[in-house]
Amino acid sequence: MAVSQVSPGVFLSDLDSALNVGVLTSRNITLIINASGLQDVSYPQLDLQLLHVPVQDQPHAPLSHYFESVAERISQNQTGATLVHCTAGRSRSPTLIMAYLMRCEGLSLRRAHEQVLDQRPFIRPNAGFWLQLMEYERTLFSRNSVRMVRTSCGVLPEALQDSEDTAAYCVNI
């Protein structure tokens, strides 16, 4: 699953797919958001808008500094579709799309995660990005739908349930 449509006009991929002219043209991509950490990426010679998010996939990296600007650019892209990519399409780009879904589509973090996970089952934002998403959700909605819990596998994000009987972890363990 190289390219995943997570919302109308919003796609998520890895770097290799973002460099494929067939992928870009078949999905009418007009805006690429590059969260790969690589600045000098040579995209196909198409009429593309580019936004570079210079953040590494490290828990301490300040990806949340880009949540608003990325969400704004995606929502303003009326000429075609948007492709958000990082290197593997597992951590940075899904995090940015979840922030967009919260900001522009009004989804809780839990619902945004479920929506992205349904289309791309192997996402796994790092723990630092989860904390940044949780802080952003609290800023937007004054509440959290996910919490961090200590497990035998380490500290993991857990979707808050109506019942505390079962844990629904937000990662594939």
From TrEMBL:
Keywords: Hydrolase, Protein phosphatase. This is Dual-specificity phosphatase 14b. GO terms for cellular component: cytoplasm. It comes from Paralichthys olivaceus (Bastard halibut). GO terms for molecular function: MAP kinase tyrosine/serine/threonine phosphatase activity; protein serine/threonine phosphatase activity. It catalyses: O-phospho-L-threonyl-[protein] + H2O = L-threonyl-[protein] + phosphate; O-phospho-L-seryl-[protein] + H2O = L-seryl-[protein] + phosphate. InterPro entries: Atypical_DUSP_subfamB (IPR020420), Dual-sp_phosphatase_cat-dom (IPR000340), Dual_spec_Phospatases (IPR052103), Prot-tyrosine_phosphatase-like (IPR029021), Tyr_Pase_AS (IPR016130), Tyr_Pase_dom (IPR000387), TYR_PHOSPHATASE_DUAL_dom (IPR020422). Belongs to the protein-tyrosine phosphatase family. Non-receptor class dual specificity subfamily.
